[in-house]
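This part of the workshop introduces the protein records we will be handling. A record pairs a protein's sequence with a compact description of its fold. Comparing a sequence with its tokens is the quickest way to learn the format. To make this concrete, we reproduce a full record directly below:
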Amino acid sequence: MTIDMNPQHFSSFRTQISFLILFLFSMGASAQKKEAVKIQIKPELKIQKDLSDEQLLDLVQKQTFRYFWDFAHPVSGLARERSNVAFDYGNEVVTTGGTGFGVMATIVATERKWITRDSASRFLLKMVKFLSKADAYHGVFPHWLNGATGKTIAFSRKDDGADLVESSYLFQGLLTVRQYYNADNPVENELRNRISWLWDEIEWDWFTRGGEEVLYWHWSPNNGWAMNFPLRGYNECLITYVLAASAKRYPVPASVYHRGWAQSNFFLNGKTFYDHKLPLGFNYGGPLFFAHYSFLGLDPRGLKDQYADYWEQNKNHTLINRAYVLENPKKFKGYGASSWGLTASDSWQGYAAHSPSEDLGVITPTAALSSFPYTPEYSMQALKHFYFDLGDKIWSEYGFTDAFSEEHNWYAKSHLAIDQGPIIVMIENYRSGLLWKLFMSDPAIQNGLLKLGFNTSAIK
């Protein structure tokens, strides 16, 4: 074999090889791009009258998931704060806490095969890569980010930095993702590694404000500790203390939980409302999201410490909330056994934290639907009413709209990530316990719970 070393011929050969390499590379890139394209989930907008209970649960979970899949921010993949433009912030606002709920919903969609595992893991990796470059403060993300740039969008004038609670919801989700996507392939390996890196970078101890025995919600490079909001229970923030105690690099001691979170004049309750004892928290329990947000991953079944049995806490909180609606002391139209659930949501006069103590005549579907594990019969009763009776007013391409008030003939057109996500996740925890099993299987979480004094029987 002879090789033609004529410079002219050699140059031509090299050019052909270059074109061939470029062609093969472009074909590979095109294939990769095609592989990463998300298959959209078709919405079912027509009310179907002949659905079984299981079919109805499938439909509600799947269609609600469209909020986090088809409506995800196109650049970052993160969950949009809401479906309507509000607060004059434009179309780029994404939410860290709502994204945490959304990534848990993505696990449900993968497990139930509405989307492929490969498509889901690539979608999640895109998110995590974006978060790796987004604004963070001592490892903690802000409440809102610009979904295109990763820059902080201030939640309020002085809330322009770290939001420890919203970031806790995000990492409750990401740690669950790390447990589920455990295959030995390049995408899932990188996904887990990047989550671990972000998790280890959170300086939980920084948020004790120099060693105080309590965690603080906010810190800003511009305003420091000016928000001055210590996390004292009982409310939606239990998960924050569990994660802070579970961290490897920058954990907080158990004393922060016992002397910070558990020491306030509204932590212990012990009173009875509508024949249901409420171990912790405000009278009548407060808005129902207290029983949801921290417990998307934390399994309350058998979860106990020296202060409460958290299954009893959450179930009785839900029963009290429903019983109040049935009593309906303000005589609002539309309240009843099939239409109940008071929690934070949009309302006919703006956003409000609906509860028995702040009742504006507004029912929020996520309240009853995210309570499926605690009150399955009552939640199914509400679900059927919302879908079959009110579906023409509140059923949409992203599941149920945020809230409604028959008293004021008001039906929201909006959806909020923090309300849509728990519907999918808590219905799944009722059906299979999937997210509870995954989150509670994380060794770091198990160690954190034991460190705080939770009983070991809660660790499945």
